[in-house]
């Protein structure tokens, strides 16, 4: 039987406890299901179970990240004969620790991140990896303690705080919804558009150097809309090894969050001319038509974008060489 998991993330004093307390006080979220509550950090706010609408909520404190083992979670599941799980996660712990150790029948039904709008940008500047970790899979990001004056403040580039927060969230997870809370009954859903930094309807889609990361994500998330499109883009050529002579891997190194997560983000490319005349790692400028199809280089992961090149020529490296979302 599936056991739904409701995951609430964010740093200390970000508003998680208040939200969860109010949710458990209402019948819409708490009809009396046997609920295991994993409390992974304790802030200044305390829970008041006497106010809960349903009383079958069993608190278990997880003091150390290493205690999040499959064996321990299974023991708690059996101990309380639970029907669902609520997790208030520690902002200083990586989410993979929880996801990799959840029992097989535990399924995350909803993940929400909470952030104090007054400190979010500072956290992102100083602890980017931890912030990105909480944003990358959140379905909803709630910024509380907002003021319209603070969100309108601009940086040295003329970008206001609201747009900076929006961009940070959607660089990590473009599908997440964002909510700004100014007061108990004063909330605003984010409606800032996310236009692509290139014209997908142009006869030739020209991807500039600073748009590579966004293009690579977009073509992987919505590959079908690129079927038959012509692309002009600059990157690196990877050949040799087990890659056939009429193919190469085209891509660039992309930094999603920080230096530790830099990875080569590439696609299969086909070219009828002699690929072997290029050295592995050469910077090239290509023009290619996209076809979505199965290819052995994708190792059975299903159809993917294949770039049928009509032009390949050496070029100067991009500046900077590593692509980012910022």
Give a written overview of the molecule.
- By secondary structure, the chain is of the alpha/beta class.
- The strands form 2 sheets. It has an 8-stranded mixed beta sheet, with helices on both faces. Strands 10-11-12-14-13 form a 5-stranded mixed barrel.
- The chain is 21% helix and 31% strand.
- It is built from 8 helices and 15 strands.
Uncertain segments are: none
Average pLDDT, all residues: 94
Helix tally? 8
Largest sheet: 8 strands, mixed
Global geometry: globular
Q: What separation lies between the terminal Cα atoms?
A: 43 Å
- The structure class reads alpha/beta
Rounded to an integer in angstroms, the radius of gyration calculated over CA atoms is 24 Å
Compressed to H and E, one letter per element, the order equals EHEEHEHEHHEHHEEEHEEEEEE
Taken as a percent bin, the fraction of beta residues is 25-35%
Number of strands: 15
**What strand order characterises the main sheet?**
3-2-4-1-5-6-7-8
Helix content: 10-25%
